[in-house]
Specification:
Strands 1-2-3-4 form a four-stranded antiparallel beta sheet. The radius of gyration is 21 Å and the shape is elongated. The model has no long low-confidence stretch (mean pLDDT about 80). The protein is of the alpha+beta class. It has one domain (about 45-200): Yope Regulator, Chain: A. Helices cover about 60% and strands about 10% of the residues. Keywords: Actin-binding, Cytoplasm, Cytoskeleton. It comes from Musa balbisiana (Banana).
């Protein structure tokens, strides 16, 4: 009976997630129709806001986690989203894309949720900076508690949130952290790129002075 109720709750949660995604897609289509009326800066801000809002709404609907022991091994409690040994405990994954270079994959199970991010990398320099910066963060995964040391294949960084994290921390604070991280990562990479370009320009100027 408990298993049947659990499956019913997850079907309802799955429907709620899908409804949030459909509503946010409707808003995004409306913004796309307004594209000719917006400047490039306003367009970027609009799409980013809709992208982050869609992710926030999906996380709020999907992060309904509860303690659930492993069905394969007695007295074990492992994140089902990682093991994937019981299909009935998994929700449908949700992929949210801002464009080809930026996307977010949200995978949910009864006791854990995994969020994988693809960070925008417009050129080779941003690619190198993003790789180094995210590797720096991954090496300190224990300090973040919810950060996965190795990202899911095809993505730059992944977070793993279990029911224990939701018990020890506030749910809305976890969601705020994920969304704020996505906002800040682009700013950090842009600032690093600007710093590298500025330093390179100064070095080139000093080097060429000896030939003048």
């Amino acid at each position: 009976m408990a298993k049947k109720n659990s499956q019913t709750e997850y079907r309802k949660a799955d429907e709620k997630v899908q409804n949030f995604v459909k509503e946010d897609l409707r808003k995004l289509r409306k913004a796309i129709r307004l594209r000719p009326l917006l400047s490039n800066a306003n367009w970027q801000a609009t799409t980013l806001r809709l992208y982050l809002t869609c992710i926030r709404n999906t996380l709020e609907a999907a992060m309904c986690l509860q303690n659930f022991p492993c069905q394969e091994v007695e007295r074990h409690n492992k994140p089902e989203v990682e093991l994937k040994t019981s299909p009935e405990l998994l929700l449908n994954p949700v992929l949210i894309c801002r464009n080809e270079a930026e996307k977010c994959l949200i995978e949910t199970s009864i006791n854990s949720i995994r969020i994988s991010l693809k960070v925008k990398q417009a050129d080779e320099l941003e690619n190198i900076l993003a790789k180094k910066f995210l590797r720096f963060l991954s090496m300190r995964a224990e300090s973040f508690q919810v950060l996965r040391r190795k990202p899911v294949q095809g993505y730059d960084i992944s977070f793993l949130i279990t029911n224990y994290h939701c018990e020890d921390m506030h749910k809305h604070k976890l969601i705020d952290f994920i969304v704020q991280f996505m906002e800040d990562i682009d700013k950090e990479i842009s600032e690093l790129k600007l710093s590298v370009n500025t330093r390179g320009r100064l070095v080139a100027t000093e080097f060429l002075k000896q030939f003048i």
